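hiii so my PI (J.) wants the whole complex modelled not just the main chain, which honestly fair. so below is everything: two entries, each one labled with what it is. i double checked the lines twice but i was tired so who knows lol
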Amino acid sequence: MSESGVTQSQDDAQSTTDSAADATTDVAGATTASRDAADQTTAGETDEQLREEWTNYQFEGDPKLSVEDLDVYYGDDHAIQSVSMDIPRNSVTALIGPSGCGKSTFLRSLNRMNDRINSARVDGSVQLDGEEIYQDGVDLVELRKRVGMVFQAPNPFPKSIRDNVAYGPRKHGELRTGLVARLLGRDDTDEEDELVERSLRQAALYEEVSDRLDDNALGLSGGQQQRLCIARCLAVDPEVILMDEPASALDPIATSKIEDLIEDLAEDYTVVVVTHNMQQAARISDQTAVFLTGGELVEYDDTDEIFENPESQRVEDYITGKFG
Amino acid sequence: MSLGTRFDSTGTLVEEGSVTREAVSGGLVALAFASFVLGVLSLFQYLPVDATVGGVTVSTVLGGGLTLVGMGTVALGLASYAGRFETSPGHTGGLASAVFIGLLWFAVGGLVTSQTLGLSRLWPVLALLSGGVAAGVALVAREDLGVTLSAGLFVLLSGLVVVTGVVGPGWRWDPNGFSIVATGTVGVPVIALFAGLVGAWVAARVYGGFGAQGRQTGAYVLVGTNAAGMLALLVAVVSFIAIRGWGPMTEGIRYGLYWGPVTWFNPPVLDSWVIVEGPIVWFYWPFVMEGYGLNIPIDGVLPAIAGTFWLVVGAIAFAVPLGVGAAVFLTEYAEQGRFTFLVEISTNGLWSTPSIVYGLFGLAFLVPRLGNTPSLLSGQLVLGFMLLPLVVITSRESLKSVPDEYRDASAALGVSRWETIKSVVLPAAMPGVVTGVILGVGRIAGETAPILLVTTSSPFSADVAGVVQGGFGFVSSFPFVTVPTLDLVQSSNALPYQLFAIIGAGLGENLDFAWGTALVLLLVVMSFYAVGIASRVYFRRKLEA
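here's the output for the full assembly
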């Protein structure tokens, strides 16, 4: 498909209703944040200068994702201020910070979901395996196949569980199960069954739904729906999985299942997860990035370092609950 | 200071002596509701006011019932005011109730003084006076006294007027300055409807023991009675047509079962005919299986049914794909701004454009270009134009109500926008789209004016328009198959037009035929509804768990 440029311009022409809903939380948050950022900070937050070494995180091997001086604007609002960070492969990276600090916006700029918002403008560079994703000629289909995303609220399609999981591969033409395929003898039903089962197993959902794959996905519980969304994302075989507060709408038991799942997934995938639950970040992540008011990346390091020995006073105040 | 002294009156958790009040006022509600229902029945002549039931006229029954309701509510109100049983009345009847009661009494005062007393100049003063007094009583007096007295007396007065025969079956009223004549057959039911509604409302307030609870039951009864009245109106209209149309429509139906040849064939080897016999159901329904002509024993409406069928099918086939396509473009692709706003305004305007205007457009623009003759095709296109705006409006609304999460989820899987629309957005919007089509079909199937201009010929044809000509078959020359052809450029009849033409030809001897046609039209529209509702259920079930 050659829709890189085309898709982008179509996406830019996306209706305002769409985009408003897309970014409600973050735009609203970002508005207040950037206004505050200029001269003052959130109540209880001390004033301090950022230092480069706080965000200078060293690790072995090439980074999977490499972000360089990334700025995101919503209209006049500066939602992300020149953030640079390298994300190592096959690990869990947690993004934490108070509401409206731009962590979700940052996440959405990693697979160009911000393109779907009219007013959003992105400056800077994001590289996936050393390839720039913000340049002309980028195939958004291929990018989003490689960088999958799981949203805050479970959003399965109103289709059967099987159709939900097989949706991506079918639409990408990797599975052919339609009438024409059946007539031509190129039916991929077996492959599809295999893929559905594998994806659901990876998402730790198969045991619970194996006998009702043709039931509507909306009949599942919230936690099951979220794992189905993860399975749907895994079915297109991504390399990176972005998760935007994947457990915030779920009860504690469903949350712990999702957390276990994230840790398992990190063996084969690069997982970037936004959360505002600091215990969760401490439990599941290998490295943590702390965003604070105004869309700045304040500190980025091993999770243990962040939680036990933060360098920034503000980060220490934030993780000990003095503000935010 | 204890909390209990903060209010003047302390409520009790368990009311005593409320059983009598509830029994009596409940009975009054039922009686008032019965008067309302009886009023509806007599208004539609199912039970005319001068008919007698057990030796009494319906008018007397209505009047007596209303008198009882009026006396009962006033008595209950007085008893409550005297503290005979426990209620929780407010300090006032409430502003809205007072205004409502004031308007009632304004009308009563005005009518009595101008018509009965004949005070042609003074009536506005007296009308204002009576309205003001009633509203004042309802507003100022304690709720149990004010509301029951002002509204109960109205019911009582209405009942007395009817039961004493002041407004009875023989009553006539031709108000000055209006060229209408009201007779008792209409006047009594209308009074019964109004007073029944008011009586049920007041009695329900007593039933709830006044106060917040009383207002709640009052509103509940009022709204419920209104809904019942609306349903009654619907049933009355449909059954009115059904009762009159049933006889002519079913006239001459004959059916039977006989043994006969079902199929026969000639196998090449045997070289003789093999005939398979079996039971054959035989059914003849002249009204829907015959045309309209001199040599037909029982006239029928088959050509009109066929015409209406082709018109509706053609209009749907034309308007639905186009309308849904436009809605998808406007909702999913076009930038929301001045352009879409303009389109929205103009579609709304087109939907409210009178059908005769569409008909004139068709006559002036389509007919000369499509064979220069009235034709089914022109009718289908004109009806399609009429259906289009509604399809666009309802499809847009249902597309907008598809959650954005679906679009996000699909985009995050790298699926292109068109694929997303095709496999997620449109299926989720289908029930809404179908609802729009159902609404539109109801309108276009009954449309007379455009059909009259662009489709029918005069006098209307007695035969079914031969739209499908020829059949499937094999021939010896290229391309070796024949397929039926659709001939849409011919004039046709349609049910609403046929009805119109019969009425135009004089109803006298054709009255039965007209009612039968009306009933068939109703049934045809309803069967289109049934198809629409079934498909809506189908699409909805696909979305639901």
